[in-house]
Amino acid sequence: MGQPRHKVVVVGGGTAGWMTAAAIATAIPSSLASVTLIESEAIGIIGVGEATLPHLKRFNDNLGIDEASFMKATSATFKLGIEFRNWGQQGDAYFHPFGDYGVENHGVDFHHFWRRLAHDPEVGAFSTYSVPVMAAAAGKFKHPETNGERLANSYGYAYQLDATRYAPFLRTLAEARGVTRIEGFVVDTRRHSETGDIMSVVLDDGRELEGTLFVDCSGFRGLLIEQALQSGYTNWQHWLPCDRAVAMPSEARGATAPYTQAIAEANGWRWRIPLQHRMGNGLVYSSQFMDADDATSCLLGAVSEPELATPRQLRFTTGKRTRMWHHNCVAIGLSGGFLEPLESTSIYLIQAAVEQLIAHFPLDDDYAAERESFNTLLDLEFTRVRDFLVLHYVATERDDTEFWRYMRHLDPPDSLRERMDLFCRSGHFNEYQQGLFLRPSWLAVMLGQRLVPEHYDVRVDAIDPGQLKQRLCELKARIQNAVQQMPDHDHYLRAFCQERAA
Ligand code: FAD
User: What is the mean pLDDT of residues 189-215?
Assistant: First the structure.
């Protein structure tokens, strides 16, 4: 067999590096591309990033990964969504579920029907019309039934996993599929004198590794995309000023919640991510409003379980690489950009970049069109996540600290302002056709943070209010009944990992 057309060199062996290597080795024929991954144990991986989105299941499925084995290997738990505390006002709580609310009727979204009768106490809160919200509150979980009735498949789920275990799990799989791993420290790159493309990377022991396509998964340092190619960085800190985190694992006590928590604090917010063997904790904050010592005290004061390690400080600059695919180098993972982990989007953004790289994989050396298309799509992904994150801050009524007053009066991106205005007036959205986040997610956060539309869809008035109320109450009862019959998350999880893991 001849040489493959592309020699893909992945620099970095964190979650991004091994997701990229495993996916390319699985999807791209070896006649078209070989894959080599270089990583340095001396540097290590970032090792935070434990909450994910439902899309990860598809990624694993495409790699042929057995779900129970993956969950056992990464000490993962099931995740039905995120509980937000203290965001609209202190004392508030709402849930962003992975699933839809109610049922659509004659092409009109459910929330319009609810909105018409929202004042009626028997109709109750919007959240009571969601299976995953009610299941999470009751600590219940079971897999959605793909062929079951509407309520049984009205939700999806993600995982909370040990971030240090997913990359090694993928490494075993990727190496079995032909990926060559090199332990080494990259110190330099050689570029083509005319095109400027990267031709090779140089290791500290003098070895030189040639490639035709380079994937920069080197983390925040952006070794190839920035240090070598100076792609530039679009900084979004004026909209998302949190630029620090302090992370600390603790023991897990009590029942394992099937959800992540994001608890707003005086100068940022705190995560709680339950795994099988421990709890992930962290505080995200802005260095403009809080220093590292205060952040550490705030975290230590809030975590009641015994600590398993000393708190670790992390720094980041919110934004994205201006061109994630520049010359013959694609930046995936933290090297491509970072948006704070409020909605657990980083691993999703890795997945989106890997899937788009595979969909746009160059068949020959002339791939400028593929590169442009990739960059446009990734821009869209990042921008949409950015807007959704900013929503959590600007849709607040908190004014108890300088941080919250700043966030509350922030001028949001135009794209977000337009969405908020339209929703507040009519309850409508300009629906995204793909990507993150779709209508139920926006509804959860907007209604959860007290943005209630002034009007509802006029078609709702065609239904008699008495009949509508009866239908809503029946639906609510069916949801309660469905949730009651679900098993406890803890019980289901342990049985699933013990009995089903290959
Ligand atoms: P890294 O893990 O930093 O890996 C970089 C790799 O590059 C390493 O293997 C290193 O050895 C290698 N390397 C670097 N320089 C060299 C060199 N010179 N030579 C050779 N090798 C080199 N994501 C989520 O999806 N959910 C979350 O809940 C979440 N929470 C987060 C919380 C915080 C505070 C932060 C900062 C991030 C969080 N993330 C989260 C993001 C998530 O951690 C990352 O997206 C993910 O771990 C991918 O990291 P990476 O592989 O890009 O980089």
Answer: 97
